[in-house]
Structures are given as structure tokens and as C-alpha cells.
Amino acid sequence: MAWALLSIAGILEIALALCMKMSEGFTRLIPTLITIAAGLSSVFLLSLSLRTLPVGTGYAVWTGIGAAGTAIFGMMFLGDPPTPMRFVCIMAILSGVIGLKLVSAQ
Length: 106
Description:
By secondary structure, the chain is an all-alpha fold. The protein has helices spanning 2-22, 29-49, 55-77, 84-103. Helices cover 80% and strands 0% of the residues. The chain has four helices and no strands. The longest helix is centred in the middle third of the chain and has 23 residues, at 55-77.
């Protein structure tokens, strides 16, 4: 259950970053409200997952999902340059996230 909560928290972290971009410096109401809701929900679910997962593993996976997912969405929808090194770095992040899951006792 902790891994499912952590995965949802990571997805909300992606939503947080994308809506923050769409809020244009918190000047647009709806994206700002979604940013706040996604951020609070993400941190809340992270805290629930940390009841059973080690803090280092949970936090690293949470930030990894958020970072990799945001970078992918940025390249797909926001015009971020899809350079080969970006893909290499995203794969390194995802490899680390998968590795932490595989070596976790939970």
C-alpha cells in the first residue's frame, strides 16, 4: 500500500510542477488552486507512505518520479528540448527509482 501511495504522491508532484508553470507566477487563479491542492496532497500521501518505507527511499522515489515525469511532460507538451542527454539523465533517474524499489524490503 505504501508504494501505491508513494506512486500517487509522485504523480501529484508532476501535476504540481505543471500547474505551477500554468499559473504564470501564481497570477492565474485555477492553476494556482490546483498547484496548492496537488502540493498538499502530494506531501500528505508521501507522509503516509513514510510510515512504513524508509525516509531516504521514499523521498528519493517521490522526487525521482516528480523530476523524471515533469521533464518528460515538459518535452512532450511545453517545448522543452528533447536532447539525447536529457533522455540519458531521465533514464538514470528512473533506473535509480526502480533500483530503490527492488532493494526495498517493503
